[in-house]
Amino acid sequence: MAQSSQAADGLASIPALLQRNATRFADKPAYREKEFGIWQTWTWSDIKREIDDLALGLINLGVNEGDFIAIIGSNRPQLYWSMVAAQSVGAIPVPVYNDSAAEEMAYVLDHCGARFAIVEDQEQVDKVIDIQDRLTLFEHMIYLDPRGLRKYDHHKLHQFSHVQEQGRAARDEFTPDLEARQAKLTYASTCVMLYTSGTTGKPKGVVLSNRNIIESAKSSCEFDKLALGEEVLAYLPMAWVGDFIFSIGQAYWSGFCVNCPESPETMMTDLREIGPTYFFAPPRVFEGMLTNVMIRMEDASRFKKRLFDHYMAHARRVGPAILDGKPVGLMDRMKYALGNLFVFGPLKNTLGFTNVRVGYTAGEAIGPEIFSFYRSLGINLKQLYGQTEASVFITVQPDGEVRDDTVGVPAPGVELRIADNGEVFYRSPGTFESYYKNPESTASTKDAEGWVATGDAGFIEPGTGHLRIIDRAKDVGKMEDGSLFAPKYVENKLKFYPNILEAVVFGNGKDRCTAFINIDLQAVGNWAERNNISYSSYQELAGHPSVLDAVQKHVEEVNASVAQDEMLSGCQIHRFLILHKELDADDGEMTRTRKVRRRIVEDKFHDLVKALYDGSQTVSTKTEVTYEDGRKGYISATLTLRDAKVFPIVQGKVAAE
Amino acid sequence: MNALSPEGYVTADGRKIGGQLMEMKNITLRFGGVKAITDISFDIREGEIRAIIGPNGAGKSSMLNVISGFYVPQEGEVWFRGARRPQMKPYEVAQQGIARTFQNIALFEGMSVLDNVMTGRLNNMNANIFSQAIWKGRAEREEVLNREVVEKVIDFLEIQSIRKTPVARLPYGLKKRVELARALAAEPKLLLLDEPMAGMNVEEKEDMSRFILDVNDEFGTTIALIEHDMGVVMDLSDRVVVMDYGKKIGDGTPDEVRNNQDVIDAYLGVSHD
Known about the structure:
The structure holds two protein chains of two kinds. By secondary structure, chain A is an alpha/beta fold. Chain A folds into three domains: about 20-185 and about 230-275, Rossmann fold (3-Layer(aba) Sandwich); about 285-470, Rossmann fold, CATH 3.40.50.12780; about 475-645, ANL, C-terminal domain (GMP Synthetase, Chain A, domain 3, 2-Layer Sandwich), CATH 3.30.300. Chain A has a five-stranded parallel β-sheet with strand order 4-3-5-6-7, sandwiched between helices. A five-stranded mixed β-sheet of chain A has the order 12-13-14-15-16. The two termini of chain A are about 35 Å apart. Chain B has two domains: about 1-95 and about 190-275, P-loop containing nucleotide triphosphate hydrolases (Rossmann fold), CATH 3.40.50; about 110-185, no CATH class. In chain B, α3 packs parallel to α6 (about 170-185) and α5 (about 140-155) packs across α6. Chain B is globular and about 70 Å long. The relative contact order of chain B is 0.16. The interface between A and B is medium-sized, with 13 and 20 residues.
């Protein structure tokens, strides 16, 4: 692999980029945060000062080169600065999911041997204090928000602003040390360590070097022509690689502005106020927004609803073509312009998408309906395929080649290879260094030539060169009769229905497929309200016969569509049930990034899986649940199992999606 | 009951409580022939969380209304910050630095949360009607300063996401929080809470308790509250006054009150054999 060992212009680290930006973009906005109802702005020269003060303060506290510093909290500018300050003093920032339970946090902090933590507020301070006894190396904690913390023992607890003050006071004393440490940073030094969400087993610490981050940021910025003046909204978890690339990597490379929402609940309002030009969201966010729009249109006056339906139908027909710059007739264009005036423009404004130039979705397959809805409004929404180990980018969709069923062509600098069993391999400048303290996993994932196994099965479409992902490689199996079993393919089709939040399909090694369904409380609840169905809890609604009827209809439609695909037609769902609880990360059934942990679900609900195959009509069960504060309880339920109609295989037709 | 030093005392969790902020001396309140309160005396100290509890009809809300100046007792004296308080109009009491919330929420339903909380700053708006009308000069400066205080309260109570929402659309628990926000916006010395947890679920009660403790801790606000939920009262308050049939039957720390035989009798009943 041709790796450039030297960075362009000596910009070999994030602190070096900060130095450049502080001079070149001195008075341009770098971070904004809504606080006390007003957007507060920091320019690049402001944040250079802030970060330097903090870095000096960290040296003053005794941070050594090579130390790990955990960063825990929601998206706050100060926490982003903390990461860069940590890098400036030669330490390694480890952002941690702020909603993780104390157990998970203890594992991560213990595994990396963090000596310091910079946390947001009392909630996180309490969590770390809870687990402190188990962390042998842990020493000091710094917090942003002093509220409620006054009475805490402050021997090893420091307020963020005080650390900065002390740093400022000791400027003359420590500046030579700080400069010396910064000078030692090279392309090969570690930029950040991120823990993977771990669909199987314990999280793994992915070590990413400055080369990984800066090269990825650079080529992706060039790919989408991201430049100074872009606005992004930082609302996704800081511990997720995507947020690190967007809000630090690309932001520092291009010098664009990162906006932090006031609180997670105000995200939609803040999105509208900022009007980002570059926006990323997992499919479920786009899905949620669309569901909201549709619910509100149901309640709108008849005139408005007709106007909306009329122009949306037109937009679905010509919108994507106009976006892709394909030839469209003059009349159609004029009608689209009118629609833009009456419907699309105001709608985009309400959603906060007026200025979006580049939008991405990734993480999971997005429903074709949802995808085309946004594209037909004229929002340049695209898909990408990536993972933490690749510093995000593996494949991306170039402008003009956007489709809902592929994840695009290899990103700049990325090589792709499909193994004999269908597993996708890649290598790129963004390829991670290693898993921290885990040489076995590193060796089994990344070979000597730098090829990394993604764990996903897929194929490259002949002709277009686009990659299509079928499923996780280890989840792809065989049915009893030898036909292919790809659960995700069917689950995604199910999840495209607004009523269905999650689905888990079983059938590996069995004679037929069955499924667990989670309904979407918001969508189904709204439907229930309109149909005078009363319910008091998720469990009650999930067990309602009319809800079962509705879901059965969806399952049968999916079966009909699966039957069209010769290769996968064995995956039709014969029986299903609606789970009595939502799958939840707190119960370990999902990862923090909300991916289902298939094996754990299968294990935990083994009595239900058995009932799906032994032909019983109902099944009683008792499940342990964990509340947000870590307490445990039980819920009992009697579930009804339903048979779904299956369809004969359509011969001689290939996947028509 | 133990005598407290006039300079104050230190609570079990190490907070320093100051001297008397308010003292009620032999208060008796009658409505016609009905005696709502009979000869009650107690004090509220600076920085303290003071609870008034008692069974239904014990006279708790009447007591709170006496403190807030809404009722004028026929006998007895109310002392506030070292001076005897003459008969006052409610707004004059508010100007002295006393704010309250109500048992039945009393917000402006049609107005947004922000506007409701802004009304808490009424005593800090002095610009005349003409300057208000053209919104120049003093009116504008005042509004900016008041909005700043209000925004800090909104941030403190974590209600940013409903800032612009009309109050009528909010669930009960949030309305209670907005009411607290309005009272806090007045930056009171003494905050009176009339059943702040009534009708709330466990989670909402936990949140509200947290906020009450934080208000006391962050701003040093003295808090007097009436509450039915004994668990909450015992956890939150530094000292408790117990009332029954308009009389004071107990006064002291939660532990003292809990072991007081009269209090046990009032709450659990006495056997008549």
